Amino acid sequence: MNYRIISVTSLMQNCCIVWCKLTRESIVIDPGGNFEKIQQELSDLDLSPVKILITHGHLDHVGAAIELSKCYKIPILGPQKLDKFLLESLLIKSKDILLKKHLDFKTHSWLEEGDKIVLGSLTFEVIHCPGHTPGHIVFFYRKGRFLISGDVIFKGGLGRTNFPKSNYKDLMNSIYMKLLPLGDDITFIPGHGSISTLGYEKINNPFLQ
What are the Metallo-beta-lactamase domain coordinates in residue numbering (predicted)? Predict the structure, then answer.
């Protein structure tokens, strides 16, 4: 498995391009904005994505999804359906006509706990991790001990829970009951900031002590 992290939007969100080394099939995870930047990176890597995956419904994770979907004629998958209200609210809140055009989409398929995303020889498991948002999901490549964690956990931090329908208790339950049991050796790419491992965070993350 190969991946490339692209920092997008003023919030420095980690958009990820992941591809199978054997088949060159690729996906884009959380294209939060800067469509041209993502498109250029795909071109430089000589990749044409087959799917777009979304961890949750906040603007900085979905802002360029519809443009990529239309450009490459590929489906948008995720998040879990409890984030539907967030995706719908993006249009309501936006007063920019051009931005409304870019956000006027519905996911092609909601994802649920236990669903699997196949990418060439790679298989990602969907894990529902509510808390930051009620429909937040993460993508786990078990064989490669690799996790795309979105805004659940960061290096030295946790996802915020001061948004509509966020819940701190749910967030901690997601971390302690679903993520940490995956193993200390799991490398994860968070929605913002640096790569880390679950083992490092268990010991060093001040919010988990």
Answer: 12-192
